[in-house]
Amino acid sequence: MLTKPNILRLIFFIFAFAAALYYPVREVLAFERPAVPPVEMRFRARGYDPYDPMRGHYINLNIDGSIKLSRGEYERQVELFPRSRRSKAFAVLETDQEGFARVTGLLPADRRPEGKVFVKVDDFWFNKGYGKHAPYCNIRMPFNRYFINEKLAQDAEALLRNVTRSKKNAAVLVVDIYADGRYAVKGLLIGGKPIRELLTAPPKETKK
Amino acid sequence: MGNNKEGLRWLLAELPTLKQQGVVDDNAAEALAKYCNDELALKAPPRKFIYTLFYIGAGMIAAGIVLFFNYNWDCFTKYQRLGISAIPMAAALISALWTILGQKGQLWREFSAVLTAVASATLIAMVSQIYHVHGELCDFMTLSLALALPFIYIFNSIALTTLYTFGLFLLLWYPGAPPLYCFCGVLAIQPMLHIQLGRDSENRVWARYLMIFAALFGIIGCGSRGYLPLSFFALAGTMLYAGWALSERHESYLRNPWLGASFIFMLVCLAIASSNVRFFEPKSFDQPHGEWAYWLFTGVVLATNVRWFPKSRLDAKRFCTGLLVLLPLLHYCHVDAPLMKLIFNVYMGVYGGVLMLDGFRRGRLMTYNGGVAMVLLLIVCRFFDAELGLLTRSIAFLAIGIVLIAANFVFFRKRFQEVR
């Protein structure tokens, strides 16, 4: 027979456990069954391979998230974001003529850009642009990691470095952008092929 | 414990001799032998040592499993990965139900609490990893600690309290959690720490150490976002009062870490206050709700100070400690920073002298040495920044040296006479 403290303990445990499960389950459902299907966007990427003792190797990506501003726009943006770093904002995304995503605007967290594709960002800063250089806003895009098996990570880094040096659009990060601003990285393509496929494919036999 | 065991063995070995010499009769020798043998047989193994090894071992196994799956992670599909990530949660649920329904003891409760909290944090981390969602460590820790908190109270777990208290520091990892979250984080663990600090709790000494870390986190996360002298000295004064209250219960220095830690913290703050005017310039509240967090934290510390304030026995050193909390308030009476610096120089000298006198009168070497340390620190700080000539410094040093040696001589003579 359970004592009264243990009955209370059981009831509180069930609530606490449900609360602990709520967040990950909600996240998984939001990714797997979104109310509005996500928009697939392609970002030009560069990358390197850092090491983490627990996560092993992954590729740290450098995604271009800068917006060129006119002097007037710069003044308005700086006024809009008095604390540029550490504040939340929405980065509005559009697809350019080449089919790549680019950031076209930055809005404060209380002004949700309805009807547009956007992601939540929390690290951006403004540069005044001295001399002939125009002012700009630099945004650190939130999807800047691509996890990969540690045996492949160094090869992946070398491959990424080589292709992005020679071709600007060779490495592409494909990201699903959901209607509420969340995102899920779908894959990293090199020359149109998934990087995992390229790294695990058997080497082609050379003709003699 | 070890000494008692040795004592019992010695007594057992001596019993035949004692019986031969007629010190104890046969009945008494038999009763003593039975008592000693029973005590030696019943000696419990050192529980805390077993707990520690258990936790380290469990941690190593968990890390090994994580790394094994990490190595083979690419072999699984997304849904298999999600399933594997949920296994620790399932294990935690089974363990917790086993503990509660089976009405198991404290060791099981500790295990279930830690397992549930770690499993929940693991699941969140894994979901982020599977979908390549990037997040900040401070955000992850905020969520993980908030979810771990109920399990601390449900299982009354000191192990999870320890993990939580140290985990709080990860909230400060760049870019850092908002100060109001830091305040809520440190406030939420206070009831548990106060339960553990109770006289009946066997974890009370460890809880005292944890309280130091919680206070340190609070001062970094919330108390350093505004006018530093008020929050810093309020905390130092409060812990000093609490430390003195414990030392009056004849707790040793190892079992009473508040006294030493708060005194060192106070010395460092006083050295800065007496040397640098910028210490008195309020920091701007550059983060959302920074001002709220600062005042809430400082308010709680001041309220605790009032609770520990020794109303019945207010001697000179306790009065000086009270001044430590009140002096920073002069800033709000438009006293400028250079004058505040001067006031703290005078205060430091006076407080050091009061401690030396108090230690001398009561014959307490530690109090006396504390006063000496404070006066010496003041001298060293002024040596570096006072623009005095070499001759003046030389005379000042000689005079102070002679006074200190004479005071020490008188003190030891008094102690020697008392001992005799």
Determine the structural class of chain B based on helices, strands and strand pairing: mainly alpha
Query: Would you list the SSEs of chain B in sequence order as H and E?
Result: HHHHHHHHHHHHHHHHH
Largest sheet of chain B: none
Quote the distance from N terminus to C terminus of chain A: 81 Å
The amount of beta strand of chain A, in percent, is 25-35%
> Radius of gyration of chain B from the CA trace?
28 Å
Give the total of beta strands of chain B: 0
Taken from the alpha-carbon principal axes, the silhouette of chain B is: flat
Which range best describes the helical content of chain B: under 10%, 10-25%, 25-40%, 40-55%, 55-70% or over 70%?
Answer: over 70%
| Rg over C-alpha atoms of chain A, rounded to the nearest angstrom | 22 Å
Shape of chain A: globular
Order of helices and strands of chain A: HEEEEHEEEEEEHEEEH
Low-confidence stretches of chain B: none
**How many E strands of chain A?**
13
Q: Determine the mean pLDDT of chain B.
A: 87
Q: Kindly estimate the percentage of residues of chain B that lie in beta strands according to DSSP.
A: under 5%
Can you give the mean pLDDT of chain A? 83
Descriptive notes:
The complex is a heterodimer of chains A (208) and B (420). Chain A has helices spanning 4-32, 71-80, 150-166, 195-200, and strands at residues 39-48, 51-52, 56-63, 66-68, 89-95, 101-108, 117-121, 124-127, 136-139, 145-147, 171-177, 183-190, 193-194. Chain A has 208 residues and is an alpha+beta fold. In chain A, the strands form 3 sheets. In chain A, strands 1, 2, 3, 10, 11, 12 and 13 form a 7-stranded antiparallel beta sheet that branches. Chain A has a 3-stranded antiparallel beta sheet with strand order 4-9-8, covered by helices on one side. In chain A, strands 6-5-7 form a 3-stranded antiparallel beta sheet, with no helix packed on it. The model of chain A has no long low-confidence stretch (mean pLDDT 83). Chain B is mainly α. Helices cover 77% and strands 0% of the residues of chain B. Chain B contains 17 helices and no strands. Chain B has helices at residues 2-20, 26-42, 47-71, 78-101, 106-130, 137-155, 158-167, 179-188, 190-197, 204-223, 228-248, 257-273, 290-308, 316-326, 337-362, 365-385, 390-419. The longest helix of chain B has 30 residues, at 390-419. Chain B is flat and about 80 Å long. The two termini of chain B are 32 Å apart. At the A-B interface, helix 1, strand 10 and strand 12 of A face helix 3, helix 4, helix 5 and helix 6 of B.
